[in-house]
Amino acid sequence: MKWLYQAWRTNDLYDWAVAGLLVVAVVCALAVLRYVMARVVGALAKRTTTELDDYLAQVIAGTRLWLLFPFALYAGASALELPPKLEQLIELLVVVALVLQVVLWINGFIGFWLARQVEKRRGVDGEGVTALTLLGFAARVVVWALMLLLILDQLGFDITALVAGLGIGGIAIALAVQNVLGDLFASLSIVLDKPFVVGDFIIVDDLLGTVEYIGLKTTRLRSLSGELIVFANNDLLKSRVRNFKRMYERRVVFSVGVTYQTPLEKLENIPALLRAAVERRKQTRFDRAHFKAYGDFALTFEVAYYVLSPDYNLYMDTQQAINLEVYRRFGEEHIEFAYPTQTVFLHGAAAPAVVSASG
After folding, report:
1. Which residue in 106, 102, 112 sits closest to 50, CA to CA?
2. pTM of the full predicted structure?
3. Fold exhibited by the domain 250-341
4. For position 292, what pLDDT does the model report?
């Protein structure tokens, strides 16, 4: 009150009238400017498909007139002779209003971006929506905390000790809950990087199952035998994860062994026979078929092909059909499958004795 009384005594009525007119003029000018820019940018946003002009329209619409009033007050004060402390108070109000308005703009941008991302992921990626909401909340907390520190600094408080205390307290809390924080950040990594999502079939070390839930601390798999397997998110990211849901096709390699008594011309025909057995199946792509090796009791042929689908049942049906086709064709060509046997030659014997090594 003393400052106001001193300002009233220092300035005459004309100065106060000029100051009042300046305040009203600046407020009206800012209001008209906001209205015109909102109409222009809003009309432009409706004609384009970019998101930048949509955000600008939201920023202009979110500009608060009451936060612009300190600027008008500052303009009016320029026409008056005020005590130093009153001038400092007006300047402080201007700085606080500017900081608060900038924070509101940043907060509006976070909300705008978050709403667009949630809209894209809603109904498709529930975990992603949860993580984005959490990130948006954390970003808002950081922005408002920085605003509070800036305002305290402008008010003359020593924020160095406060920041140091918060830092030490934060370190202590982080050390106390480092496992929880590790799992939390791991869950954010899983949701954002998406090495797997709910519904994927994955193998972690020697454990396998379908992902049922990705939480802030744990991820849960339903195994083939029915039990629930729970992993800590931090441990899960340290493991080697094989995601079979992301497999677009399946490569299959199998071997067939025939006896050493098979004639040469039939051996030469076996690769073509194996190729035909693969190519007759739908959703397969033949790779190769070769006489691979001389085994202990068989001449080994190796076949490689691709099943053009990750479906395991389709792979097994295809392999079964190929096996039956090979069995049928070998029977027609009188080609014998090999099985573990040993031939023992006895001195002076009329014929070698064949001893089965199977079983």
Report:
1. 112
2. 0.48
3. Alpha-Beta Plaits (3.30.70)
4. 94
